[in-house]
# Entry
Amino acid sequence: MWHNLAQLLRYRGLIQSLVARELKARYRGSALGIFWSFGNPLLLLLIYSAIFKYFVPNRDSTVQPYVLFLFCGLLPWTWFAASLNESVGSLIAGGNLIKKVLFPAEVLPIVSVLANMVHFLLGLPILAGFLVYYAYTGPGAAPGTPAIAQVALHPAELIWLPVVILIQLVLTTGLALMLSALTVHFRDVRDILANFLTFWFFATPIIYPVQSVPGLKPLLDLNPLTHLTVSYQEILFYPDNAFGHVYWLLVLGGVSVVVFLAGYWLFDRLRDSFAEVV
Amino acid sequence: MTVKSAIVLDHVTKIYRRFGSRHFATLKSALLRRSILEDLKPSETFCAMNDVSLRVPTGSTFGVIGRNGSGKSTALKLVAGITKPTSGTVTVTGRISALIELGAGFHPEISGRENVFINGIMLGLTKREIERRFDEIVEFSDLADFIDEPVKNYSSGMYMRLGFSVAVHVDPEVLLVDEVLAVGDEAFTHKCLDKFADLKRRRKTILLVTHSLNLVERFCDEAMWLDGGRNEAEGDSKRVVDAYMAKVQLDEERQLATADVRARQDADSAARSQPRAAEAAGPTADVKHLGEGRWGSRVVEISQVGLLDLHGQAAHVFQAGDLMRIHLRVRASRPVDDFVFAVGIFNAEGVCVYGTNTEIEGFRPQSLSGDADVFLYFEALELVEGTYKVDVAVHTRDGVPYDYHRLFYTFRVKSRTKDVGIYRPRHRWEFEGQVSIAPQEPS
# Structure
């Protein structure tokens, strides 16, 4: 296992070109190409802005403007969920490679996770742009609350952002490896996952702030995604410059490494069966 | 060992696990029965490779032959490292490139150019190495005009050509080839063979899995014949091919023989169950009968039919031009003086190749009682390669059958010449004047 893990570094060229291919292939034939990676979150953000401004205004004063709060959680969630959804089928879809070419199978789920990470990273500037825009204009501030007069992005907090992203990457990759390996043997993992992700989405404080459900807090704390989401929200959304969630985040970092190693271990154990079962 | 070996298989056994027949279909049921771990273990096994040892010296070309399902491709996958041996060890020295499935990693949506790069990286090249070889790869594949088209628009031949081209330009020290030469047109196949010859000259090791015995004989230094996962023969390629061919012929012989026996048994039981009906039906209805069958009054019975070769041995496989003798053993249950012996030969499409009888050829029947043997000699089977069926009959001069055996007996004609048609008249070519043409060396 450790040997194979070390081999992964050798495949970085392969992973890199496969991620590039994935992104290219996705937008091949579309007129705007890679700009859809910006366009999609931008349009979604605009739609949500309209909805939460005019149709279902959210009056919770702690999360104004609500659409930005929502997006701070939604963007990373999309990365997480899409990565898992794509990687579970990646070994089966890439069966030809596993069966016919000497090919390191773990590259496939990793590429799924990384390709979605690129989408996520491309969506971040859009979010940042809106954050800055709202910070200076403050149109979303509800009456009676102090208008968000300052930029919510503090350098002291922002340096944590790469750490959060890294932890999410490690956690997602671990789960992706585990699930993709299991899917080879149990095809229903894919369907179970799709449904479970819906549940997971609502079990994560993305559309509601974690403070709004104090009774459920112990349960939510068990959800690793809670800590990722709260971290993103604290760094990107809440205006104070103290990153209070840092201890939870570091614990989660440890957990992610364990999940990754467990996922890789399982993958490695089942590796030899892939070429025969896929 | 003074000669270095590029590929060494040491007592390799590969047991495939058959997950397909396991008892659970879903994760749910596995969870309910708490048997995931047991179920992940295989329930049934299939031995695809049984204690095979092999040494391929560096720089040699090695052929692997055998029937479908004999373990050839498993051998290749083991050497390529795609699957691991259940026991034994596989050692390969040098960079491998496997032509197992061409263009396996191509992505249909992106261009040929990009696919060349990604495929090359998959096969272990760096970006710079591919850049250096790119023009050569494209030129070899003859796809310069299409290289920027998405691969999904390629024809299957173009797809294969590009895949082949990338794989051979990886500059492997060990090249594994699995029956991929059949993909291109004639010209491309020649190009591939030239490329192989080039690699061979440069002392690269080639492991070739193929059904083309010609190719093995012509190209390989040594060969191995696998049968049912066992190493049946190994050594000089010509000898191995000959041994394999002999076995194939023997198997065909045996197969045809059992088919014959079965057909005869079927006919006997059919005749026994409705003897009257068969008799009543008479020849007019039955002549048009398309399938196998047996009918007749059995006053004279054909008790045994044999196809015999030159040495009088029963045979089912003949070389074109061989002597064949058809032997009928007949038994008359009462003396008769009105009888005709008849034989017809049909090809696989049911076309009558030749038919004759003693009446047509002017024999006058006089008496037949008890046992008798009838022989019909074909001095030379002037037929093209194929499977042929034989009708034999004894009937009256008016055509009322005593015993008619329709298409029961099968023989095969084999030929090294792949000529077409049914009949091969004895022939030869002559050339005069301003023509230069040489006989192809026997391959």
